[in-house]
Every structure is written in structure tokens, then in C-alpha cells.
TrEMBL record, chain A:
Protein name: CLUMA_CG004657, isoform A
Lipoprotein among keywords: no
Lineage of the species this protein comes from: Eukaryota, Metazoa, Ecdysozoa, Arthropoda, Hexapoda
Membrane-spanning segments: 56-84, 105-123
PANTHER family: GEL COMPLEX SUBUNIT OPTI, PROTEIN C20ORF24 RAB5-INTERACTING PROTEIN
Organism: Clunio marinus
UniProtKB/TrEMBL annotation, chain B:
Main location as per UniProt: endoplasmic reticulum
Lineage, highest ranks first: Eukaryota, Metazoa, Ecdysozoa, Arthropoda, Hexapoda
Organism, scientific name: Clunio marinus
Keywords recorded for this protein, A-Z: Calcium, Calcium channel, Calcium transport, Coiled coil, Endoplasmic reticulum, Ion channel, Ion transport, Membrane, Transmembrane, Transmembrane helix, Transport
Organism superkingdom: Eukaryota
Listed name of the protein: Calcium load-activated calcium channel
GO BP term (any one): endoplasmic reticulum calcium ion homeostasis
Coiled coil ranges: 31-84
Length: 133, 182
């Protein structure tokens, strides 16, 4: 259950949407978000999932070094940018695309690093040991 | 086995995140004073945000004064909120320092993961702490623990609904900026 207080002049109202409603809103074009906070929550959580997926993929390939980090930055920001343009989000209503891209970036980056490091270590540990012998 | 070590660290940070939030809930979040202050701050923040939005940059002297007064009130409430949080911070600070030193001694000198990148020099002290050799792709307990905590704590706070609202964070609630319009 996502329950947040409204953003602007509807300050006393409390909007809530169920998890399934949030998913439905997130995947519908030109969705009418009941609250700014709910939309930003959707961006936050979808980014978390995407970040974990990127970490898994980067670790399995494996992508290494600065290229892996830079590619993550591009893909993570690109995901938000493409989502907003594909689903008709009016970014000005949320303070511009930069504000939306910033949403949950650091947590997303940390989640990605954890997934990347653990996947890379567990899948390629033996190869790395042989390489160093 | 590296995977088991890494997963143990993920569970440790999950456990400490829930423990920290649980203790903070008992000591702070459930108290009437905290709840009152939180609601008050959110209300004031939104009011101030709206006022700034409506008035824009062109402000006369009286309007500026009014906004400054509101900011001052917000700052005072923020200070009170920090004081309420203080006792929990002390308790969790002590508890986690003890827990961390215990886990540190368990994983001391142990490579818990292999980094897919070489960290920049000022992070190497952390990522390679208490490890022998100069292979900087070897990861120490503390580095993985910090990354896990950065990721998990924030998400746990969000799931439990304890994270501060975006409007409050935007206004600099944890470091309000009074006199912005001076």
C-alpha cells in the first residue's frame, strides 16, 4: 500500500493506491497520477528493480571497470528519460526532467553495486582464482 | 565460499536496518511529540512552498519578512525534531558500533567479494581494509557492508513509511535554510 500526503494545495488530503493500482498506473500511457509523491514513488521503486537487474546482467556478462560504472549511469538516467517520454509524463509538473532523474539515484546506484559485485564474485570467482595462480 | 560470505553481509545489513528502525520506532517515531512535530513541519513546509510559488521572485519588504518568519518557525520545529531524535541516535550509535566491531573481527582479513572494478584511491583504504597484498579488486567486509546499508536502510525506511517527505527534504528540513530571501 502506498500512502502519501498530497503535494500542493491538497495538503490535508491523503492519497493512497494499492500495489496493483500503482503497477497499472505505471504502465499506462498519459496516466492521471493522484499525487506527485505517488508518481515519484513509482519512479523510485521501478528504478530499484531496474538497478538490481542491471547489476545482475553486468555481473553475468561480465562488464568490468569504468565502462561498467559509466554504462550504468547512462542506462539508469536513460531509463527514466525514456520512460517519461514514452509514457507521456509532463516533467515540468515535477520540476523538470532533472528532478525526476535525481529521484532515488544514490540508492539505485548502491543497489546496483551490491548486485553487480555479488553476481560477479559468485559467477566468476573460480575463473579469477585460476587466473591469479 | 564467497557467495555465502556476501549473502551473510546482506543479511547482516538487513537485520541491522530493521533493528535500527525498530529501536527508532520505539524511542522516537511512536511518541506523540515526534508525530506532532512531523505533521507540523510537513504542513509548514507545504505552506511555505506554496507561498514561494505564488509570490515568485518579486517580493516586497513585508512579504519577505513574512517568509523569513515562517522559515524561522520551520527551523525551530526542525531543531526540536532533531532533539527528539537525538536519544535514539545515541542508543543506535553505541549498539551499531559494538555490532560492527564484532562483525569486523569475524571477517577480519577475509576477502568477501571480488570487485569488478578498481576503486579510486581514496576508497581503496575502505575497500581493501585489513586485507593483504595489493590486489585492489579484493573487497573487505566493511566496504560491502556500507554499500548494502546504503541500499537497504533507505528502502526499509521507505517501505515502513519512516522516510521524510520529499517536500520536507526539498526545503532542507534536515538543515533548513532560513533567510533565503534576505
Amino acid at each position: 500500500m502506498v500512502q502519501k500526503q498530497s503535494g500542493t494545495d491538497k495538503s490535508s488530503k491523503v492519497h493512497s493506491v494499492s500495489f496493483s493500482e500503482l503497477i497499472k498506473l505505471g504502465f499506462s500511457k498519459n496516466a492521471e497520477w493522484p499525487d506527485d509523491e505517488i508518481f515519484l514513488d513509482w519512479i523510485y521503486w521501478s528504478r530499484q528493480v531496474v538497478g538490481l537487474l542491471f547489476g545482475l546482467i553486468w555481473g553475468l556478462i561480465p562488464l568490468t571497470g569504468f565502462i561498467g560504472l559509466a554504462l550504468f549511469g547512462i542506462c539508469s538516467c536513460g531509463y527514466v528519460y525514456l520512460y517519461c517520454s514514452a509514457f507521456g509524463v509532463d516533467d515540468e509538473a515535477y520540476g523538470g526532467i532533472y528532478e525526476i532523474i535525481k529521484e532515488g539515484f544514490m540508492t539505485n546506484f548502491a543497489s546496483f553495486l551490491v548486485a553487480w559485485i555479488i553476481t560477479y564474485s559468485s559467477v566468476h570467482w573460480d575463473e579469477l582464482l585460476v587466473e591469479r595462480l | 565460499m564467497v557467495l555465502s560470505d556476501a549473502l551473510v553481509i546482506v543479511f547482516i545489513s538487513l537485520f541491522t536496518a530493521f533493528l535500527g528502525e525498530g529501536v527508532t520506532y520505539i524511542l522516537v517515531y511512536r511518541t506523540e511529540k515526534y508525530q506532532k512535530l512531523k505533521v507540523e513541519i510537513e504542513k509548514q513546509t507545504k505552506k511555505l512552498e506554496k507561498k514561494k510559488e505564488v509570490l515568485g521572485e518579486a517580493l516586497d519588504k513585508q512579504q519577505k519578512k513574512k517568509i523569513e518568519r515562517d522559515e524561522e518557525r520551520l527551523k525551530n520545529n526542525n531543531r526540536d525534531l532533531s532533539l527528539v531524535k537525538m536519544k535514539s541516535m545515541f542508543f543506535t550509535g553505541f549498539a551499531f558500533t559494538a555490532l560492527l566491531s564484532m562483525f569486523n573481527s569475524i571477517f577480519d582479513g577475509k576477502v568477501v567479494a571480488r570487485l569488478p572494478f578498481v576503486p579510486i584511491s581514496w576508497i581503496q583504504g575502505l575497500s581493501h581494509r585489513n586485507l593483504q597484498g595489493d590486489d585492489y579488486t579484493q573487497c573487505s567486509f566493511i566496504f560491502l557492508y556500507i554499500l548494502c546499508t546504503m541500499s537497504i536502510r533507505q528502502n526499509v525506511q521507505k517501505i515502513l513509511g519512516f522516510s521524510p517527505s520529499r517536500a520536507a527534504s526539498k526545503q532542507g528540513i534536515f538543515g533548513a535554510q532560513p533567510g533565503q530571501f534576505k
